């Protein structure tokens, strides 16, 4: 038998503040029977569409090295560039811009949340479809 991922956990200094930061980024919500409050050492948020959960856990240690596990985000409504600017406006910082790394229209942008946890922003599905259409037209 195999396992399934119950939730993804992120260590942090302030579980409530970081869960509140991530909620609008991902469109997640508090669990109906377990709302998050300031001072909570564990705060879980839920994707109402997929059921995926993120659990923020307060730990005493500071982040000291690059994440070994991170989230790759694909914008639902904005382009990759628009999403990067939106997230910067919410307080994310750019760690590395890897757009174009494998040629035009390729790559991702590495950002960090307010506590330094790294994540990537990929191209949107609309951008991917547009690129595939252009490639198909060029092949004709």
Folded structure, characterized:
The chain is an alpha/beta fold and 140 residues long. It folds into two domains: 1-62, Signal recognition particle alu RNA binding heterodimer, srp9/1 (2-Layer Sandwich), CATH 3.30.720.120; 65-140, Signal recognition particle alu RNA binding heterodimer, srp9/1 (2-Layer Sandwich), CATH 3.30.720. The chain is 26% helix and 24% strand. A hairpin with a 6-residue loop joins strand 3 (42-46) and strand 4. The longest helix is centred in the last third of the chain and has 15 residues, at 125-139. The chain is globular and about 60 Å long. The chain starts with 7 loop residues before the first strand and ends with a helix.
Structural class: alpha/beta
> According to CATH, what is the topology of the largest domain?
Signal recognition particle alu RNA binding heterodimer, srp9/1
General form: globular
Number of E-state strands: 8
Order of helices and strands: EHEEEEHEEEH
- Report the average pLDDT across residues: 93
Computed over alpha carbons, the radius of gyration is 17 Å
What share of the residues does DSSP label as strand, in percent?
A: 15-25%
Unreliable stretches: none
Whole-Å distance between the termini? 47 Å
CATH architecture of the largest domain: 2-Layer Sandwich
Helical content class: 25-40%
The strand line-up of the biggest sheet is: 1-4-3-2
Whole-number tally of structural domains: 2
Q: Can you summarize the main beta sheet?
A: 4 strands, mixed
CATH level-1 class of the largest domain? Alpha Beta
Oligomer: single chain
**Secondary structure tally, helices:** 3
